[in-house]
From TrEMBL:
This is IS66 family insertion sequence element accessory protein TnpB. It comes from Ureibacillus thermophilus.
Length: 108
């Protein structure tokens, strides 16, 4: 079995567990003849992979303009949840990106 096939098998097993009504990983594994330690290992591995992928993949946000800007140097106001960020000309794009990522992670 190739590593991609093994990964797909474990993704299917994890999906099956999560969609089941069984709340205990150990009990699900026992019922499905799957080693619970392997299940935990693969759950962690795939979760880390997903987290790393989402950190490196660009994600776009929807921008809604509530009213057109008349002034040439008006700041851009970005709302994320209950927070607002005012972006002025000459802003630090790396800092802005970090702040947006933190807010996206912690604001529901």
């Amino acid at each position: 079995m190739s590593s991609d096939e093994r990964k797909q098998l474990w993704q299917q097993r994890i999906e099956s567990y999560r969609s089941s009504e069984e709340s205990s990983v150990k009990a699900w594994c026992k019922q499905n003849q799957v080693g619970h330690q392997s299940m935990y290992k693969w759950m962690k591995r795939l979760e880390l992979e997903t987290t790393e992928t989402s950190r490196t993949s660009p994600q776009w946000l929807t921008v809604e303009v509530s009213h057109p800007l008349d002034e040439k140097n008006s700041p851009l106001i970005v709302n994320i949840g209950e927070f607002s960020i005012e972006v002025k000309e000459g802003f630090n794009p790396l800092l802005f990106n970090e702040v947006v990522q933190v807010l996206k992670t912690h604001v529901k």
